[in-house]
Amino acid sequence: MDKKRAAITGIGGYVPEYVLTNEELSKMVDTSDEWIMQRIGIKERRILKEQGKATSDLGAMAVKELLEKTNTDPKEIECVVCATVTADMSFPSTANLISHKTGMSNAFGFDISAACSGFLYALHTGAQFIENGTHSKVIVIGADKMSSIVDYTDRTTCPLFGDGASAVLLEPLDDGNGIIDQILRSDGSGSKYLHLKAGGSLRPASYETIDNKEHFIYQEGQTVFKVAVSRMADVSVEIMERNNLSSDDISWLVPHQANMRIIEATARRMNLPKEKVMINIQRYGNTTAATIPLCIWEWENQLHKGDKLILSAFGGGFTWGTIYLKWAYDPK
Q: Is residue 203 in a domain?
C-alpha cells in the first residue's frame, strides 16, 4: 500500500460577471490594448462591482460550487485554509467568514498571506492535516478582490489585476496519487519592490496615507519581473530534478498568471511545449492567490487520474515555490 497522501478530489471556482476590457481601461488611464498585450498578455479581467461584496463572497461562491459538485455536506468539512491578501477586514479571518456563508459550521479556519504564492502555501499547509491523519476533509481556497487595492490612475499596475476565487477539496488517498513534493521559499528583502505601503501596523491609515495613495499596490516592475523569471523557473526545474521527471513525464505546468513572458520563460526552462501549459491570463489577469486554482478549475475536464502536474508561482514579499502532484480522478 502506498503512503497516504493529500489529494485534490474536487474543485470549484468563481469569477465576477463584470468584464473590464483593455479598451475600457484605455479610457480611464493612458494605455492601449496593444501596449498591454505586448508587455503582459492580458486582454480583459473580471471585477467585483457590487456594493457590499468582498473577498469572502468570491470565496463563498467557489466553495458552494465545490460542495455541490462533490456532493459534500458542508458540515463534514473540518478545516478551511484561505490564501488572500485582500481580506475582508483585519479580523476575523476571511476563511471564517467563508465558512459562515457556506454552512461549514464544524470547521476551524484561518488565512495565509503569501501574495501570489499564497495558494501553494495554503495547499501545502492544508495537506499536512490530511497526511498526519487528524483530518479527512480540508478545503483550501485562493481568493482575492484585487480591484480593492488597485489604483486605476496608475498605468503600470491597473492593467495587471482582476478578481476571482477557486477552492479545492483535499482528502486522503493511498493509491499513489495526490501531493508528492513541494519547494516553498521566501525572501523578505524583496518587500521593498512589491508591497502595500500603508494600512498595517507600520503605517496605519491616516489622512496623509490616503492623500498619498499608499493603500494601493506599489511595484517596481522591472526588478520584480527579473527576479520572478529566475526564481519561478529555478524551483520548477529543481522539483523536476529531485523527482526524476523529464518534460515528457509532465502532463501540465500550472503557472501563476502574472505575465505571459514569465510563464513562457518558465516553460522554456522546463523544456515544455505551450500545449502543456495552462494559460488563462488573457481572460482573467492576475487574480493573485486565485490564479493557479482557477486554471485547474478551467482545465478539470481535461485532467486524468495519474496526470503529473507542476504548480509554480512567484509573489510579492518575495515569495515563490512549486508543488508536484499526481491528479486523483478522471473527468466527471
A: yes
- The answer to whether residue 96 is catalytic is no
Catalytic residue among 79, 82, 116, 295: 116
CA distance 135 to 252: 29
Number of folded domains that form the chain: 2
> Tens digit of pLDDT for each residue in 170-225?
999 999 999 999 999 999 999 999 999 999 999 999 999 999 999 999 999 899 99
On whether residue 331 sits in a domain, the answer given is no
> Who contacts 13 (Cβ-Cβ below 8 Å, separation ≥6)?
62, 65, 164, 165, 166, 167, 290, 293, 294, 297, 298
Q: Quick check: helix, strand or coil at residue 305?
A: coil
In which residue are the cell numbers 476563511 written? Answer: 95
Report residue 11 as a C-alpha cell.
474543485
Q: Verify whether residue 116 is a known catalytic residue.
A: yes
Parallel, antiparallel or unpaired: strands 138-145 and 79-83 = parallel
Active site residue 195: no
Whole-number Å distance between alpha carbons of 192 and 78: 37
